[in-house]
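Side project, low priority. Logging it here so it doesn't get lost.
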Amino acid sequence: MSRSGALDDNEIQTEMNKMVAFISQEAREKAREIQVKADEEFAIEKAKIVRQESLAIDSQFEKKKKQAEVGWKISQSTAINNSRIKVLRSRNDHLESIFEEANKQVKDLSEGDKYKQALENLILEVLLKLLSTEVTLNHRPKDSDLIRKASDKALKKYKDISGRESKVQFESSLSDESSGGVIGSSLKGKIKVDNTLEERLKILEEKMLPELRHDLFGVNENRKFYTFDGCLTLI
C-alpha cells in the first residue's frame, strides 16, 4: 500500500543517512583509486630515479675504471721505459769502456816497435789517396825522425804502385799527447786525409759498433734493418 504526501522527519533522516552513506562509500572508493594510482606513479618514478642513479653510478664507475686503467698503463709504460733507459745506459757505458781500453792500446802501439811499420802504411795510404806531386804530412813532434824514415820507404812503394813521384813536406803540428799517425794534405791544405790513429780507431768503432752490440747484447728485437758488407738486409 503506497503512501502519498510529505515525508516525516524520521523518513527524511533515514534518506539523508542513506545519501551520506552512499557519498561516503563513493569517497572511500575514489580515495582508494587515488591512492592506488599515486602508489603506481610513485613506484614508477622511484624505479626511474633508481635506474637513472644506477646508470650514473655505472657511468662513474666505468669512467674511474678507465682512468685507473690509463693510469696503470702509463705507470707500466714509464717503468718499462725507465728500465730500457737504464739498460741502454749500462750498455753504452760498457761500450765506452771498451773503446777507452782500445784508445789506451792504440796509444801503447804508438810507443812500440810496430808503430814504425804502421807509419809507413799510413803514409802510403795518404799518398795513394791524394795522388799529388806535393804532399804535406802533419805529425807529432816526437815522431819527426820516424816520419822521415817511414816516408822514404812509403815514397818508394808509392812509385812502384802508381808509377808517380811525389815530394813530401813535414809539419809537426799534432800534439805529442795524441795517439800518433799523420794528416796528409795537398793543394795548400784544400784536400786532406786524416790518417791519425785516433781517426782510424773512430772509423773502426763506427764500423764495428753494430757487430759489437750484436755480439755483446744479442739481436735487437726492435730493429728491422741491418747492414752487412754494404748490403741492406731485412729481418
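Brief comment: The first strand starts at residue 134 and ends at 138.
Revisit when time allows.
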